[in-house]
Design goal:
The protein is mainly beta. It has helices at 2-26, 43-47, 61-64, 92-99, 114-121, and strands at 75-87, 127-141, 145-160, 165-182, 187-204, 216-228, 236-242, 247-248, 256-257, 260-266, 269-271, 274-285, 294-305, 311-320, 323-332, 337-347, 356-367. Helix content is 14%, strand content 49%.
Amino acid sequence: MEQNRRSYSLVIGVFLTITVNFGLLAQTTPTVPQSIIEVGRSYRSLAMGNTGIASANDSSALFYNPAVLANVEGWWFDYGTWTAEGTQEITPEDAGLIMISTAYPYINREGLSETNKARFLAVEDAYLRGSAGLTLTVNIMSEGLTVAGTYVIENSIASLDEGNYIYQRDDVIRKYGLSIPIGLGQFVVGLARSDITRKTALEASTDTITNWGDEETGTGYDVGFLFRMANKARITWGLVAYNAGGTEFGSLEDNKVEQTYGFGVSMNHDLGIFRIVPAIDVRNIGSHLDKQNTLHAGIEIGMFPNSTGGSYLSYRVGYNQGYTTSGLELNLFNRYIILGWANYGEEIGTAEEPKENRRTIYYFNLAF
């Protein structure tokens, strides 16, 4: 009991110390240009500072650490997941005109039209992303044997170089993996494979938006580890290697995603009707880009936990590389219907000239 109390206090102390000093640490953190856009980011994780290596438990867990699938409770099939994300200065009406299609899955995959280009470029550092997908997640053994597969379509548009260029990307992502418990499940190994079919366009903003490049497919592998401490606070440590060996996309301009590493720690503690989940991640370890060893921290406060690891009502806050994040989610009928909102700051500048891009996410999920 005394050992558990010390472990609990240690993690809380580390979490609070890093959170309080995060602003100072982030001042020296190198950053990446906005043209590098990550795929499969979780709305839950982004609201918690983009943490998830040890804490993810939703349909995007595979993208954060395949071993963290061991934290999944029960099983679910998301047969309708829609996410709209963008620079918060872009109005919902404009975002809808640019990103919504009348054909299933209702995400515009044709690119930015000439009619809507002026709306998009009217906003400084404009950014939009629309996604839709299907996910099956099944926990087979309570010790942590879980399998999952996801099929996601993502379309992203970003203005670059003060609006002089427009970058567009269309991804079809197929990702599947499993978590394998060792012994009684205190230690877990996770494996995942990604097959991403991608096409991109990078054009001067004066050009007609028709110049999609060749469609290419890249394959990548993730290897993750999890150590779950046997205490009341359910402290969990995670380690993951992303894109082991690197992922290439043939002739595409951005044709390689490098191998990087991530480390995370989280806690999952129930207090009556509340569930408290603080988390800390260090990501992009080993990167050769400007964005290296980035620090993320966040906390989720859930009310009335359900049997799939979520809560009826969740409030989330955090820091994403020094910028504040927050979110609110309503989880009805044990994941059958999820409605949520998240707001976060993303670094789009350089180490010498940091710059925040403030973004808002709205999402809707149907499952059984």
